[in-house]
Write a structure and sequence with these properties.
The complex is a heterodimer of chains A (135) and B (389). Chain A is mainly beta. Chain A has one domain. Helix content of chain A is 4%, strand content 38%. Chain A has one helix and seven strands; from the N terminus they run H-E-E-E-E-E-E-E. Chain A has a five-stranded antiparallel β-sheet with strand order 5-4-3-6-7. Chain A is globular and about 45 Å long. The two termini of chain A are 29 Å apart. Chain B is α+β, with helices and mostly antiparallel strands and 389 residues long. In chain B, the strands form three sheets. A nine-stranded mixed β-sheet of chain B has the order 5-4-6-9-1-10-13-12-11, with helices on both faces. A two-stranded antiparallel sheet of chain B has the order 2-3. Chain B has a two-stranded antiparallel ribbon with strand order 7-8. Chain B starts with 5 loop residues before the first strand and ends with a strand. Classes of the chains: A mainly beta (135), B alpha+beta (389). The interface between A and B is large, with 38 and 38 residues. The structure holds zinc ion (ZN). Chain A: InterPro entries: ChsH2_C, ChsH2_Znr, NA-bd_OB-fold, Thioester_dehydratase-like.
């Protein structure tokens, strides 16, 4: 199946992140100096500015911090998807991610809902993490 | 000793018809006309300009490249000070600070701040088409329409935390419209009720069309010089008493607290401190209203009201004509005009208020104004304090 929506232009910061979902795991950069995860992936830790970073698996569980229902598409590629949910997810490990809530009617989404990651593979090297509400 | 306190001596904006440049001007023509009009307002000539500050989303090889050089060449001037800071709609408040510093330190004597956009004529505004590289690779693939999406996420969280209602957001839009009805130049002047706002088309929940700024053309210019030079000029000088700028996040996922507009908090504190005034001394405020939520977050960030109390604050017409707290007296980005980067028009309206030129929308004896711009995706902020001597 062809994927027609915009996909990330991967760089060496983001390559392990976008690829992690190919094996069904969510991995984020972790700083061994300050012990914190961060998102989005960078060459330096945005918390302590040191560079002792390595990718580690995270739970993929979190809660919805905020959301919006897109009634207008973000460009033509999304026009078949409206209305769709874009949300900010606070992961258990700390970082906040922007993603989609899938498999849920727009009127059922709420701040504070518990969510779990799943993946949409869009190319040989990219799997987009999205989230589903835990029932 | 020579008095080199920075003062605004000229302002102008280009008339629009149905939100478009009346003469079909392109961005360079529009900026030239606005610049000439502002110089005329000041009683200065183009050849007096030795500092040029401009910004925008047009240009060679995409936005921003060689912008002051392009404008300077077109105008036929060779400035010795230039600035092309590009931090979104707040840039002109930042550039007013930069121009003031340049004037105080003798880098230039007559600074022109100028902006133009023909976005409505060019039908250039769209939610799509952003690149998916660098930072944007983390949000464009998820279909967040920006900037409105970021502001919608902030609004949703704000309503959740504070109990603010859609009616409270609508109050901001209705107040802006009532000011616009007193401004002959404003684009949207028909009646607007809370109910109209709540029935306007949904864009990004909870924001509706009437919560969003207009899409118009627009060009404006501001002339800054020393108070010494201003003595010989015809216009009433307006002092630039304080300024500050700050940035926080580009991506909304990087914003730690969606209910706290950190750039506004930081920049306004510095501007007020520098001016040596207190918030309660301010007679009129011009606060960037890209979306209705922007006004609520800004009122709280600069300290007009406490966290979570702005929704209550704006109720019952407090910020509307006749209310106790006049803001965005020209109708703002919501009802007057919004050519992509609105910040320069906030300065122009503040100057006109301080000069007492605003006719039926004039705030009585306005002597001190606060102007605050917010740029990008709640990303940057810049504040200026302006005063009539
Ligand atoms: Zn660290």
């Amino acid at each position: 199946m062809e994927y027609n929506k915009p996909i990330p232009v991967v760089d060496s910061d983001s390559e392990p992140f976008w690829a992690s979902g190919l094996s069904g795991k969510l991995k984020l950069p972790h700083c061994s100096s300050c012990g914190k995860f961060h998102y989005y992936p960078r060459t330096l830790c945005p918390h302590c500015h040191l560079t002792d970073l390595s990718y580690k698996e995270v739970s993929g569980n979190g809660t919805i911090y905020s959301y919006t229902v897109q009634r207008r598409p973000a460009g033509n590629e999304f026009k078949d998807d409206v209305p769709y949910i874009v949300a900010l997810i606070d992961l258990e490990e700390g970082p906040r991610m922007l993603s989609n809530i899938v498999g849920l009617a727009p009127e059922e989404v709420a701040i504070g809902q518990r969510v779990a990651v799943q993946f949409i593979t869009v190319s040989d090297s990219i799997s987009l993490p999205v989230f589903q509400v835990q029932k | 000793m020579k008095n080199n306190t920075p003062v605004i001596v000229g302002v102008a904006d280009l008339p629009l018809e149905n939100g478009k440049f009346a003469g079909g001007e392109n961005v360079l023509q529009a900026q030239a006309k606005a610049a000439l009009a502002a110089l005329d307002d000041a009683g200065l000539k183009m050849s007096d300009v030795d500092g040029l500050l401009t910004s925008g989303v047009w240009g060679l090889n995409g936005p921003g490249i060689l912008m002051p050089v392009t404008v300077g060449e077109y105008l036929g001037i060779t400035p010795r000070y230039m600035d092309s800071t590009n931090i979104g709609g707040s840039v002109f408040e930042a550039q007013l600070g930069h121009a003031s510093l340049a004037i105080q330190s003798g880098q230039c004597e007559v600074a022109l701040i100028v902006y133009g956009s023909a976005q409505r004529s060019a039908r250039a505004r769209s939610f799509g088409g952003r690149p998916t590289d660098l930072n944007f690779q983390y949000d464009v693939p998820y279909g967040l329409a920006n900037p409105v999406g970021t502001y919608a996420l902030a609004t949703m969280r704000y309503m959740h935390e504070t109990g603010a209602r859609p009616e409270d957001l609508a109050e901001v839009a209705v107040s802006a419209r009532r000011w616009a009805q007193l401004n002959d130049a404003a684009f949207k002047r028909d009646d607007l009720t809370i109910e109209d706002v709540l029935n306007s088309p949904q864009i990004c929940d909870p924001l509706r069309a009437a919560d969003c700024c207009l899409v118009t053309d627009g060009a404006g210019a501001v002339i800054v010089t020393t108070s010494e030079r201003a003595k010989d000029l015809k216009s009433q000088p307006i002092d630039v008493l304080g300024f500050g700028e700050a940035q926080a996040s580009l991506l909304v996922s990087e914003m730690e607290d969606l209910c706290r507009l950190l750039p506004a908090e930081m920049s306004s504190r510095r501007a007020i401190e520098m001016a040596g005034v207190s918030l309660t001394d301010i007679d009129v405020m011009q606060l960037y209203d890209s979306f209705t939520i922007t006004v609520l977050l800004t009122l709280e960030a600069i300290g007009v009201c406490k966290r979570g109390e702005a929704a209550q604050f704006v109720r019952n017409g407090r910020i509307a004509p006749g209310g106790a707290f006049p803001i965005n007296t020209g109708g703002g980005g919501l009802s007057n005009m919004h050519p992509g980067m609105f910040g320069i028009f906030l300065i122009i309206e503040a100057v006109r208020q301080l000069r007492g030129e605003c006719g039926s929308r004039q705030v009585d004896d306005a002597r001190l104004a606060l102007v605050h711009g917010t740029g990008g995706y709640l990303s940057s902020g810049a504040t200026c304090i302006l005063g009539r001597a």
